[in-house]
Amino acid sequence: MANYFNEEFETLPRAALEALQLKRLQSTVARVYANVPFYKQSFDAVGIKPEDIKSLADLQRLPFTTKQNMRDSYPYGLFAASMDEIVRIHASSGTTGKPTVVGYTQKDIEIWSELMARSFMAAGAHKGDIIHNAYGYGLFTGGLGAHYGAEKLGASVIPISGGNTKRQIMIMQDFGSTVLTCTPSYSLYLAEEAAAEGVDIKSSKLRVGIFGAEPWSEAMRGEIEANLGLDAIDIYGLSEIMGPGVAIECIEEKHGLHIWEDHFLPEIINPETGQLVAEGEKGELVITTITKQGIPLIRYRTRDITSISYAPCACGRSHGRIARMSGRSDDMLIIRGVNVFPSQIESILVRVEGVEPHYLLIVDRKDNLDTLEVQVEVNEGIFSDEIKVLQTLSRQIEKEIKDMLGVTCTVKLVEPKTIQRSEGKAQRVKDNRKL
Ligand SMILES: [Zn+2]
Fold first, then answer.
1. For the stretch 354-366, what's the b/e string if a residue is b when 16 or more beta carbons lie within 10 angstroms of its beta carbon?
2. Measured in angstroms, how far is the CA atom of residue 181 from the centroid of ligand 1?
3. Is the same domain home to 381 and 253?
């Protein structure tokens, strides 16, 4: 059966889990009310005192926290621990202006390491594995988060970080890497570069890939598994909440990501109204941290769109599962009134014979009408075919996108390897309308 890093807590029966959540929520609320002026003011504004939190449902009475609140408190305004207790500082790059800063106490680092170790085991990794950690090391939480978790697990971690792909391929082969951690788009790039070097990455020792930091589709999983010859597992996290390891798929089901509910309280809300949606319904993920000391967050609006299920899982873990992210409520494109997530277009493209999962969406406005151009790479075989074949393929993709998403677009097939590769998060959208 399943292997657990912390069997007792990973399989805690629901009633015991909820009792623990309430106790931890109450202590977190008391902590932020006492230590963080922002929370004291926002709780006072709605007339709530920490002792009013008597059940998990009372969480809904508390106000949301947003990325803007974090920016306004830059850099340390939301910290609930004094600086002499903070042992680590990370930051996520904002799309505009100053980064979002987070601080960890020693206890926070220990919990993060454990949750990453649990995540590795859920993904099918274990002590004895050689973990090739190609997440970037630095202010970004990906590299160090995975690193500490791998050590906690007792695996051998290669802190290769991002970039220098040729060297990555050499080290992966020579060192016998068995687990790969990076962004999903980078894994495909690695496979492509390996093939160009004449290396058959499928026959390498890689067994498991743990991919996150950007949304990806089920269809892309198929591509990655076929191209790299491994089990591709989706991991979720964000620096504001902790970093990687907030939630992960188990290898038994690969169907929804267990969110570690003894440390995080998930809610799914309608992003317009702020009201909870029903189990299984899509909405924005809101997370309350219930054990963090450095920077606990109450009802943090992640802007990630997902749904949650509490159905039992084959792996035996009792923690609810969030669906793989289907986009962000703030990267959603609205094209002629139609809501479009890049991941939806991706899932159509990867099903089309002859095209590669490397694409760029160019949105523009001409004569007051939104236009969408989908640039997608074709493979070598197709590209050498006659123009007529290419035209037929373009029309076919345009029709599929129209049928599936209800949006009209122009598909432009481009030569293999012409769309810019990223060694971090892939840039999928160029929205020229804002210029
Ligand atoms: Zn499971």
1. bbbbbbbbbbeee
2. 20
3. no
Which residues are near ligand 1, the ion (C-beta closer than 5 Å)?
Answer: 250, 313, 315, 317
- 353 CA to middle of ligand 1, Å? 32
In a domain, 2, yes or no: no
Same domain, 112 and 50: yes
Q: pLDDT for 385-394, tens place per residue?
A: 788 888 999 9
| 94 has pLDDT over 50 | no
Higher local confidence (pLDDT), 67 or 31:
31
Ligand 1 centroid – CA 215 distance (Å):
20
d(CA 361, CA 376): 9
Please give the C-alpha separations between residue 386 and each of 11, 375, 383, 394, in angstroms, as whole numbers.
58, 19, 8, 13
In this structure, are 302 and 358 located in the same domain? no
Q: How far apart are CA 354 and CA 378, in angstroms?
A: 6
Place of tokens 């970080």: 161
Ligand 1 midpoint to CA 323 (Å): 12
Question: Helices then strands (H, E): number in the chain?
Answer: 12, 20
What pLDDT, in 10s, does the model give residues 324-340? 987 677 767 778 767 67
125 pLDDT more than 90: yes
Of 61-65, 78-82, 124-128, 407-411, the range with the lowest mean pLDDT is 407-411
Q: What type of residue sits at position 302?
A: T
**Amino acid 379: pLDDT:** 87
Question: Which residues make beta-bridge pairs with 276?
Answer: 269
Q: pLDDT value at position 350?
A: 85
Work out the percent of the chain whose per-residue pLDDT is above 70.
96
User: According to the per-residue pLDDT averaged within each range, which of 89-103, 112-126, 377-391 is highest?
Assistant: 112-126
Cα 5–Cα 9–Cα 13 angle in degrees, nearest 5? 135
Same domain, 58 and 166: yes
- On whether residue 371 sits in a domain, the answer given is yes
Q: For residue 321, how far is its CA from the centre of ligand 1 (angstroms)?
A: 8
Nearest to 210 by CA among 155, 278, 265: 155
The number of distinct structural domains making up the chain is 2
Give yes or no for a cis peptide into 75 (omega within 30° of 0): yes
Strands 300-306 and 283-289, sheet pairing? antiparallel
Domain end call among 306, 330, 354: 330
The answer on 312 and 367 residing in a single domain is no
Q: What domain range includes position 347?
A: 334-431
Domain assignment present for 1: no
